[in-house]
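Why do we care about 3D structure at all? Because function follows from shape, and shape follows, mostly, from sequence. That is the central idea of this module. The next example makes it concrete: a single protein chain, its amino acid sequence, and then its structure expressed as tokens.
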Amino acid sequence: MKNDCPCCGSENISGDSVEILDSEARQSVGCADCASEWVDVYTLSRREVIAAPTLDHVGSIQRI
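And the structure:
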């Protein structure tokens, strides 16, 4: 995804904080040049495990 205004192409944009709900993350964004506003919507495409418990610790993990 490009980081520019979808209306005028300007890179003079800024966004509010990201709100996460269920499997989506949303961010309200606005363009300072043309005054357009939109919402960027992000969805989880995959998960990559960067650390996993060793077999010795699997039995001690509590499930919530």
